[in-house]
Amino acid sequence: MKFIHRFAYYLVGLVIGLFFVALVFSGKDTRCNYFPNARVLNDLRNKPFYYSDKASMILAEKWIDTADIKNTLQFGDVDFDQSNKELKKGKLYIIEGKTIKNQEVTLKVINYADKAILEDIIKK
């Protein structure tokens, strides 16, 4: 069999395989969170998110709003040296990020099995 014929068979099989892969994964909400930072942030975003009284008072100060919190939970960095400690039957995570106005903030979030609570917001 000539090379051109083998190459044509290869391309036909490749196209059929790509079609089936696209068909299988097109309707699913798949995420590839392989790194610990991405897994923690994804877990916090997918749970019901509540604000403590202290965090609500800081949000009322108008230098930060809920869009900044969501942005930090999307693109922030988890400080694992200070995080993953047991606190109030949950795990404390320290997340560093920035506001829309480029102000650095640190969020203290307690992660429970069924919810996440923002405990404190620290301006740097």
Describe this entry's structure for a reader.
- InterPro entries: DUF4258 (IPR025354).
- Keywords: Membrane, Transmembrane, Transmembrane helix.
- The chain crosses the membrane at residues 7-27.
- This is DUF4258 domain-containing protein.
- This protein has 124 residues and is of the alpha+beta class.
- It folds into two domains: 1-30; 34-123, YaeB-like fold, CATH 3.30.2310.
- Helix content is 41%, strand content 27%.
- It is built from four helices and six strands, in the order H-H-E-H-H-E-E-E-E-E.
- Strand 3 and strand 4 form a beta hairpin.
- The mean pLDDT is 89.
List its traits.
124 residues, alpha+beta, 4 helices, YaeB-like fold
Write the layout of secondary structure elements.
Layout: H1 3-25, H2 36-46, E1 49-51, H3 53-59, H4 66-75, E2 77-78, E3 85-87, E4 90-98, E5 104-111, E6 116-123
Parallel strand pairs: 1-6
Antiparallel strand pairs: 2-4, 3-4, 4-5, 5-6
Helix pairs in contact: 2-4
Which CATH class of the largest domain applies here?
Alpha Beta
* CATH topology type of the largest domain: YaeB-like fold
Structural class: alpha+beta
Please indicate the count of domains: 2
Q: Helical stretch count?
A: 4
Find the count of extended strands (DSSP E, 2+ residues). Answer: 6
CATH architecture of the largest domain: 2-Layer Sandwich
Order of helices and strands: HHEHHEEEEE
Give the CA-CA distance, first to last residue: 69 Å
Low-pLDDT segments, ≥5 res: none
Largest sheet data: 6 strands, mixed
The whole-number mean of residue pLDDT values reads 89
Keywords: Membrane, Transmembrane, Transmembrane helix
Transmembrane segments: 7-27
Protein name: DUF4258 domain-containing protein
Pfam family, one: DUF4258
